[in-house]
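Blackboard transcription, Thursday session:
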Amino acid sequence: MEVSDSSSRILAGLLEARTGQQLTMSRRWRIETALSALLRERSIATLDELITILVMNKDPKLADAVVEALLNNETYFFRDRAPFDMIGQRFLPEIAQRRPDKRLRIWSAGCSSGQEAYSIAMMLSADPLRWQGWTFDIIGTDVSDAVISKARRAHYTQFEVQRGLGIQETIRWFEEDEDGWQANEKLRKMVKFEVRNILDAPPMGGPFDLVLCRNVLLYLNNERRRAAFERISTVIAPDGGLLLGAGETVIGQTERFAADRGHRGLYRPVDLTSPEAKLLGT
Amino acid sequence: MKTCLIVDDSKVIRKVARHILETLEFQVEEAGDGREALTHCESKMPDVVLLDWNMPVMSGMEFLKLLRQSGHSDQPKVVFCTTENDMAHIRAALEAGADEYVMKPFDRETLHVKLQLVGVA
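(Written on the board underneath:)
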């Protein structure tokens, strides 16, 4: 199946109109792989035939399915590990000292099928002595209906579970069934999920002490990325932290956040009304 | 450079695992069954063993039990790498002294995480 430039442009336009995400040239190689299952399922022989159906708007639900298929939902438990160690061992214990109500609010933005949110839940639950008496509000949001449904089911294949979890973690937090692993009730009760685009209004339940938005904003153009940072800044606690993906930064993207030199990969909200921020012209 | 002994009777699996391990900068040795693996370990103990379950001559479980009973102080980490993924097998492997457990098929990312978790990558 060959993907012509015109087909790529139509599909990129559809994805951007529905989600705000870009299908950059570097991601266009994925089109063929991403859509092959959908074409088989709908008995559509070629990409041109698919484009014809889309353009003629013969099947409005097909467009939804195409957008779902084009979204990159790559994720796994404890992705990159090091940021979780930093959050669990340093950042959250530090911020907890300033939370007399013993409540922490965490938002996993662009959570895909929930592995990041459940990783946070596992990390906190694994340290019951430190967190005894604490309440955690963990919310995961994603633009895709399909991945949020999967996140809510909290059921993962062997491949998905072992892609990030050690065997001891697996048997501690999951129950095996015929076709995979089900997160246990304790984890499921700690996490809530909502279908929500990062470009729309943020979820209720803030201000958030920690926002994880990893490998999400790279799919937005500069203007939308800036808007996303603005929205996150409206719901993050003044002393909260924003965790981006490895290789992502705020430099040149927004003045709302600045790198926290003590916590690699973490960004702190900037009070733009402060004399220091005004002096720096931010 | 860390060393990994792949113990599997399938040449294809050994080839795939070797490729992944070499990209992770491991020096790789191979054995086709548990007996051959024990011989390898007696001459030079690897840092980690990637171990299949069902093999001719000597199974992965028999190998693991003998390895752990051998009294060698430089015991390698052992990652079971198998198609058996039910809880009974997993628990039996952990009780016999396995450090990690990965089900075939696996990809580079999965194996890398497992090797990190046992502290050799």
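Lecturer's comment: The two ends of chain A are 49 Å apart (CA to CA).
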